[in-house]
Amino acid sequence: MSMLKHFLPTLLFFSIPVVAIEVSPNLGKAASDQQLSQWNKDIFPDGQGLPKGKGTASYGKKIYNKHCLSCHGFEGTGSSADELAGASHSLTDNPPDKIIGTYWPYATTIFDFTRRSMPLNAPGILNTNELYAVTAYLLYLNGIIEENAIMNEKTLPAVVMPNRHGFINIYQQQDKNP
Ligand code: HEC
To answer: CB–CB of 61/136 below 8 Å?
Structure first.
């Protein structure tokens, strides 16, 4: 008995890691670089992360009518889901009309948001050129670009949205007032 008393702490010490391994839920496995690149699709306001491709509003209209109109309405004027164009009043009215054209500060967000989540019932079905085209169509419907303007990884980040300077960059403010 006294022997056991003497060795018990040592026994416990060595048995804990073994027990820990046995009761591990053993969930998942490390994601491969290829899996991570499929998942990690962030697009930054300056266009970093945009894939190569292109599209115009006229092709985008076809994509929109097929995949988006059922929820967002004719020419983006809204239906069961938000209006995406054709603001009926301005951002400074009460209440403000916050849509892409009046509110969103960066055009690249349209591409990013659509690619990761739209159409709501089948996200991911649009290819890169279709995404550029439908983005161009939404910008055109909001009166921000011409109908034949080509949107690609260079031109899309260069689009200046009407509300580009309507947000306060708190990080810059902090830099100015440390
Ligand atoms: C099945 C219905 C449905 C379809 C189809 C659909 N959407 Fe949407 N969409 C929604 C809903 C619902 C929301 C609001 C989601 C939220 O607020 O999280 C939304 C939100 C959006 C927004 C953000 C609007 C805002 O001002 O916040 C954009 C942009 C958008 N959709 C684009 C598209 C495009 C482009 C397509 C076609 C490729 C599409 N959607 C197809 C239902 C749909």
So the answer is: no
Q: If you take atom 36 of ligand 1, which residue's CA is the nearest one?
A: 68
Residue 115 CA to ligand 1 center (angstroms) comes to: 11
Of the candidates 82, 43, 13, 47, the one whose C-alpha atom is nearest the C-alpha of residue 156 is 47
**Closest of 128, 112, 93, 3 to residue 49, by C-alpha:** 112
Whole-angstrom distance, CA of residue 156 vs CA of residue 6: 73
Q: What is the pLDDT of residues 80-133, one digit of tens each?
A: 999 999 988 889 899 999 999 999 999 999 999 999 999 999 999 999 999 999
Distance CA 47, CA 111 (A): 10
Q: Is the CB–ligand 1 distance for residue 110 below 6 Å?
A: yes
